[in-house]
Amino acid sequence: MVERNLGTQEINLTSLKQPPIHVLTQIQPHGVLLVLQEPELTILQVSRNSSTALGISADQLLGRSLDAILDPFQLDRLQVGLAYNNLDLINPSKIWVRRKGDDYQVFDAVFHRSADNFLVLELEPALTQENIPFLSFYHLARASINQLETTSSLRDFCHIIVQEVRNVTGFDRVMLYKFDDDGHGEVLAEEKLDEMESYLGLHFPESDIPQPARKMFVSNWIRVIPDAHAEPVDLLPATNPVTHQPVDLTLSILRSPFSCHMEYLHNMGVGSSLTISLMKDQKLWGLIACHHRTPKYVPYELRKACEFLGRVIFAEISTREEAADYSYRTMLTRVQSALIEQMSEADNFIDGLIQHEPNLLDLTEATGAAVCLNGKWTMLGRTPTEEELNYLLQWLAKTVEDDVFYTDSLPLVYSDAQRYKEVASGLLAIPISKRSYVLWFRPEVIQTVNWGGDPNHAYELKQSDNQARLCPRKSFSLWKETVRLKSLPWKPVEVQASLELRKAIVNIVLRQAEELALLAQDLERSNAELRKFAYVASHDLQEPLNQVANYVQLLEMRYHDRLDQDASEFIDFAVEGVSLMQTLIDDVLAYSKVDLKGIEWELTEVERALNQALNNLRGRIAETEAVITYDSMPTIVSDGTQLMQLFQNLIGNAIKFQKKDEPPHIHIGVQRQDDAWLFSVQDNGIGIAPQYRDRIFVIFQRLHTRDEYPGSGMGLAICKKIAECHRGRIWVESEPGNGATFYFTIPVGGRDRSHATGWKKQNNLFDRR
Question: The whole model's pTM is what?
Answer without folding.
Answer: 0.54
